[in-house]
Amino acid sequence: MSNSNFTFISDRQKGIIPAISKVFPSAEHRYCLRHIHENMRQKWRGEFLKNLLWKCASATTIPKFESMMEEIRKQDSTLFDWLKQIPPKHWARAYFTGARDKPVITCLEYIREYMMKRILVVHKLISKCDGPLTPNATKAFNTIKSEASQYTVIWNTSNKYQVNGPWSDQRVVDVGQRTCSCRRWELTGMPCKHAVAVNWNMAVNGIEVGIPESWVSKVYWLDTWKKVYQSTVNPINGKDLWIPSTCPTTLLPPKHHKQIGRPKKKRKKAVDELNQGVSKNGKMVRAGNTITCTLCKDIGHNKRTCNGQRQNG
Ligand SMILES: [Zn+2]
Ligand SMILES: [Zn+2]
Fold it and tell me: How many CA atoms lie within 13 A of 84 on its CB side?
């Protein structure tokens, strides 16, 4: 199923963009405008251009966005060209989908429509399934069954079975408790290969046991999936037909509380970022610079700390 309901916001660090599109192929990816501006500032400075950038990014419609871009082109065509090469879907609100940044009613309507579409997608999927398990569970259970065929079973005439496998693995299955000593059955709710081997052994010996799937927890059944998605979301009329609320209360925003202390401005750094640029003794290092000794031409120390490494070593 698609992951289109995710949106990522990044500072365009190398590697993040390909990584996100790999893991969430249909997710939206937005760049943090502050970081775009940070890069822009290296070449194009000034409040005026900064404000124009902001106006482009926050324009809610494509024509508005384009007219603001036109303003930029008139001011500085090199900046216009530079901005053009960043796909607008990543930084301009006019090209964003989703409802995160919309008013609350629009946002709720977006979610309601999303649910309607989602239920339809799942219904279509279910109609293509034969059961008795869901497609993913069927796949997993088929693997278990193909492995189970390689096991031999010894019955102790009560509820317990000893199961021997080709990889000298020997486990105990308790059919009464529905457990196996490999613990997979209890943990996943899906019988392990040992339990499936026992199920077949029971069937062969004339014990009425049912298909191995009947031992699989109900959470993996197609019927359960159907039940989860059986409710529907009602379609509703457009806003112009909505009846004004008779509720007499006017909702006011909560009182603004001034927080104690100076507001933090620095971005919170990740753990690995914190250690960057600091040497073992806690002092700052000149990152990226490799020093070369002027005396012995060796790298990694300077002439002050030189003791003729190259000659000695
Ligand atoms: Zn097992
Ligand atoms: Zn040296």
Answer: 11
Render pLDDT for 183-231 as a digit per residue (tens, 0 to 9): 999 999 999 999 999 999 999 998 989 999 999 999 999 999 999 999 8
8 A C-beta contact, residue 99 and residue 111: yes
Residue 172, amino acid: V
Q: Please report, for the chain, the start and end positions of each structural domain, with discontinuous segments joined by +.
A: 7-95, 135-227
For residue 283, the CA-to-ligand 2 centroid distance in Å is 22
Closest CA to 201 of 149, 146, 165: 149
Q: Ligand 2 centroid vs 284 CA: distance in angstroms? A: 22
Question: For residue 313, how far is its CA from the centre of ligand 2 (angstroms)?
Answer: 11
Question: What residues flank ion ligand 1 with Cβ within 5 A?
Answer: 171, 180, 182, 192, 194
Ligand closest to CA 302: 2
Record the tokens describing residue 113, joined without a space: 């429509």
